[in-house]
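Please fill in the sequence for the structure shown.

STRUCTURE ENCODING:
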């Protein structure tokens, strides 16, 4: 084995855009993933929040995820096309206790299709039901979620930004799917409840930053 065989390959970088109505938990989802925190007070995202996080996928592949958290009020805005352009992954997020946030994803997805229709490579689209800690208040039935996924070839995810349940797994699976990497059951179970330390490294290796961009 040569020295080069044991060297780490170059970092891959993926752009993930998080879309959906206001109050469905997009920012909470992004901050839970990138910073492992949860803010109890709702604060509307104006324009765009931007997060970076480095993860390690099987095969010792370093992947830097750019998470673009798009404000819920931007669906009719001029900048939305620019936010979506060039994304390798789209997360359509809704609140499982809010039927309207689910119904409105059709509008968000129509914008995605319009922006990406002439792209050589289509982004992977993930349907993300948030707030599973409020399962007792669920109004969007699971079969409705699954049917929307099947009709549009979305990947399917259920998470709780509040508790962290399955948040890291959601982003890990999306990144792996984009790169064509298979995750085994043990790897998925390890990240099911947000235990990201073994997979992400520690300290500065996580490359966590956040910045805001106005409209």
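FILLED IN BY: designer on duty
SEQUENCE:
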């Amino acid at each position: 084995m040569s020295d080069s065989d044991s060297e780490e390959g170059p970092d891959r970088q993926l752009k993930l855009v998080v879309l959906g109505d206001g109050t469905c938990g997009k920012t909470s989802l992004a901050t839970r993933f990138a910073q492992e925190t949860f803010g109890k007070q709702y604060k509307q995202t104006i324009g765009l929040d931007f997060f970076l996080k480095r993860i390690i996928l099987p095969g010792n592949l370093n992947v830097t995820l750019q998470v673009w958290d798009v404000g819920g009020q931007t669906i009719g805005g001029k900048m939305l096309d620019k936010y979506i352009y060039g994304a390798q992954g789209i997360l359509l997020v809704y609140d499982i206790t809010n039927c309207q946030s689910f119904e409105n994803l059709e509008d968000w997805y129509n914008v995605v299709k319009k922006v990406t229709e002439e792209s050589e490579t289509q982004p992977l689209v993930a349907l993300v039901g948030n707030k599973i800690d409020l399962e007792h208040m669920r109004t969007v039935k699971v079969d409705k979620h699954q049917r929307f996924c099947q009709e549009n070839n979305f990947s399917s995810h259920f998470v709780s930004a509040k508790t962290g349940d399955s948040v890291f797994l959601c982003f890990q699976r999306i990144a792996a799917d984009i790169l064509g990497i298979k995750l085994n059951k043990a790897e998925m179970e390890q990240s099911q409840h947000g235990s990201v330390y073994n997979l992400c490294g520690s300290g500065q290796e996580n490359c966590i930053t956040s910045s805001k961009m106005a409209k």
